[in-house]
Amino acid sequence: MPEILFVTWDGGGNLPPALGLATELARRGHQVRFLGHEANRRPVQAAGFEHEAYATARPFSSLAPGSPLAQLAMFGDRGMGRDLLDSLRRSPADLVVVDCLLFGAMEALRESGTRYVVLEHLYDAYLRGPWLRGPLGVGMRVRRLRPTRSLAGAAATLVATLPELDAGSRAPHATALDFIGPVVPPLGPRPEAREPAVLISLSTYAFPGMTGRLQSLLDAAGDLEARVVATTGPAIDPAGLRPAANTEVHRYVPHAEVMPAMSLVVGHGGHGTTMQALAHDLPVLVMPMHPFLDQPMVGASVAAAGAGAVVGRSAKPAELAPALAGLLAPGPHREAAARLGAAIRARPGAANGADRIEALLRPGLRGPGPGRPSARR
C-alpha cells in the first residue's frame, strides 16, 4: 500500500490544508504520516496520523515566533532536511509532500533525488512574488539555498486556492501548477432562519499587538444588531478582552461548526480562514496583521472581487463600525461572495489534490528515497 510522508511546520494556517489532503488520501487507503515541529503533534494525532518531531532542526513555535531572522533561519534550516532524510532511511515513503515554505527540507529532497510534491497553501503570486523576491527569498539565497530550483524540481505543485483570486495563475510558470482548489472542511447545513451574526477570528500565530487589534474590532461590533462570536486562539488571553453584551468570546470554536450560522467573517487575511468563509458564501472584512505576509494580498483579492473589504490594522472603532455594518447589510458583496463560494465548492481541493498524487504513484513501485535516483531530473 502506498505510503506518503507530509513535511510541515508550526505556522498555524498551513497545517489544515495538509491535514485535509492527508485525510482524503487515508480515506482512499493510503498510509500517511507527518514530520513536523513538536507543536504539530497534537493536531496531527487528533486527525488520526502518526507524527514524528524534528530531531535536530531548530525549535520553533507560532506562539513565540521571534524576529524575521528566526523565521528565516527556520525556513532555510538544513537540519530539517537532515531529519527528513533520516526519517526516510528508517521508513521509506513512496512520495513526500512538503510545505512550500520549507526550502531547507526541499533542497535536501531535490539534492538526494527523492521524489516530492510541493503543497502551496497560499497564493502562488505571493510565494513567487513578494516572498521569493523580498527579504525572505534573499535570505534563502544568502544561505546558498536555491528556492526557485527546488520549487521547479517537484514532481507536482499543488496550489490550494482559486486561480481567479490568485494573480499567479496568469504568470508564465502557471502552466506547471495544479490549482486544486481550497482545502476546506466539509460544509455543514445552514439554519433555515439565521439571525445576523458576525465571526471575528484573527490568527493563531502570535503577531505583535494582536490583542489590541481584536479589542478594537470588538468595540466596533458592540453596537451591531447582531450576535458576535469572537475566537482568540492560543495567542490571545480572553481574560484581557472587554466584550460587549452582544459578544461571546471563546478560546477556540471550530469554524466549520459556527460558519453556517454566520452572516459575515472578520479575519486577518489568513488564506485558510478566508477561503472557508467564502466557501460558506460569506463576505469577509480583512484586517492584515503583517504587511509583508500574504494577508494584504488575500484581502485585496477579496475586495477586488467585490466580496469584502480591507481595513488597516491600526483602524479605530469609529472607522471599523461602518465597515462592519456595511458588509453585514444586504448588497452586491453578498452576491460576489456567493459566486466565489460556488467556485470553491466546484473545485474540491482535497479530492483534486488526492487525484493528482495518486496519478504520481505506481502500484507496487516504491518511489526513490535518499541516495536512489529519481525518474525526474
From TrEMBL:
Database matches in Gene3D superfamilies: Glycogen Phosphorylase B
Keyword Chloroplast: no
Key words, A-Z: Transferase
InterPro entries assigned: EryCIII-like_C, Glycosyltransferase_28, UDP_glucos_trans
BP terms from Gene Ontology: antibiotic biosynthetic process
Record-linked Pfam families: EryCIII-like_C (PF06722)
Signal sequence interval, chain numbering: none
Domain Erythromycin biosynthesis protein CIII-like C-terminal: from-to ranges: 216-360
GO terms of molecular function: hexosyltransferase activity; UDP-glycosyltransferase activity
Domain of life: Bacteria
Keyword Transferase: yes
Protein's name in the database: UDP:flavonoid glycosyltransferase YjiC (YdhE family)
Species per Swiss-Prot/TrEMBL record: Nocardioides panaciterrulae
